[in-house]
TrEMBL record:
SUPFAM superfamilies referenced in this protein's UniProt entry, alphabetically: Adenine nucleotide alpha hydrolases-like
Main enzyme class: ligase
Family: Belongs to the NAD synthetase family.
One Pfam family of this chain: NAD_synthase
Record organism: Pseudomonas fluvialis
GO function term, MF aspect, one: metal ion binding
Protein name, UniProt field: NH(3)-dependent NAD(+) synthetase
Function comment: Catalyzes the ATP-dependent amidation of deamido-NAD to form NAD. Uses ammonia as a nitrogen source.
PANTHER family tied to this protein: NH 3 /GLUTAMINE-DEPENDENT NAD + SYNTHETASE, NH(3)-DEPENDENT NAD(+) SYNTHETASE
Domain NAD/GMP synthase, first and last residues per copy: 28-272
Binding of deamido-NAD(+), residues: 147, 180, 187, 267-268
Catalytic activity: deamido-NAD(+) + NH4(+) + ATP = AMP + diphosphate + NAD(+) + H(+)
Pathway: Cofactor biosynthesis; NAD(+) biosynthesis; NAD(+) from deamido-NAD(+) (ammonia route): step 1/1
Length: 275
């Protein structure tokens, strides 16, 4: 273990490896208690989350639904609701997985907002995109998609006086693998501090289908590379990222890549700079 590994793990409040199933269950209960306390402290009764069809949103969504059901039972107040919203850009290539995620989550309310027209409308008005080469333009538009999804979720939450859930966890946070003020924007992030393997373990415990638990993770924001694996973008595997965050030995390449990416993406994990 290096000093940087320990420093980064502490900064991200990384949860130690689950020693056994009892520890995992305790962590699930702690996360549900956190979700419930966020709503109670805000004096609100509705949660909103975008469902992509990946393990992260599936896990966060099921935790949210269970938390809402417990709140209804504990308070006798049927106004508590969880809204799971699909946010495809035209037709999503892995729509079957998104539908499987919804079936697993069993949200109180399901909605769908297709963001394609909004994204295209904005792109048409931003002339600064025109001179970009195809790859760079595709990348910028991918971030626009993430930010439009954020706007849609907050619009739904605002309409219901609710809170927006984010799906960021330690393995994504360390790599800065989220769009600033896009999918990185939320009111609460119940998966924070978990590594990818722990998210998968919780999903499995909650009964998620294997196709979602072990699905190859992808942000799926680029038209030129639909379904591009996260690990290809990272340059390291999630297994290596998890090991790094748990202060376990990793290759020199993985260590250097993770530390460099963490340092370069520091601005994403901070509030706006002020004088």
């Amino acid at each position: 273990m290096s000093n940087r590994q320990a420093e980064i793990a502490a900064a991200l409040d990384v949860v130690p490896p689950f020693a056994d199933q009892t520890v995992l269950i305790r962590e699930v209960e702690r996360r549900k208690a956190f979700i419930k306390s966020c709503l109670r402290n805000a004096g609100l009764k509705v949660l909103v989350l975008g469902i992509s069809g990946g393990v992260d949103s599936s896990t966060a969504g099921r935790l949210a639904q269970l938390s809402i059901e417990e709140l209804r039972q504990e308070t006798g107040d049927d106004a508590y609701r969880f809204i799971a919203v699909r946010l495809p850009h035209n037709v999503q290539h892995d729509e079957a997985d998104a539908q499987a995620a919804l079936q697993f989550i069993r949200a109180d309310i399901e909605d769908c907002v297709n963001i394609a027209a909004s994204v295209q409308g904005l792109v048409e008005q931003v002339d600064h995109l025109d001179p970009l080469n195809a790859a760079r333009r595709d990348f910028v538009i991918g971030n626009i998609k993430a930010r439009v999804r954020m706007v849609a979720q907050f619009a739904i939450a605002n309409a219901h006086n609710g809170l927006v859930i984010g799906t960021d966890h330690a393995a994504e946070a360390v790599m800065g693998f989220f769009t600033k003020f896009g999918d990185g924007a939320c009111d609460l992030a119940p998966l924070s501090g978990l590594v990818k393997g722990q998210v998968r373990a919780i999903a499995q415990y909650l009964g998620a289908p294997e196709q979602l638990v072990f699905k190859v993770p992808t942000a799926d924001l680029e038209e030129l590379r639909p379904g591009k694996p996260d690990e290809e973008a990272h340059g390291v595997s999630y297994a290596e990222i998890d090991a790094f965050l748990h202060s376990q030995p990793v290759s020199e390449h993985a260590y250097a890549t993770i530390v460099r990416t963490y340092d370069n993406s520091q601005h994403k994990r901070q509030l706006p700079l002020v004088p």
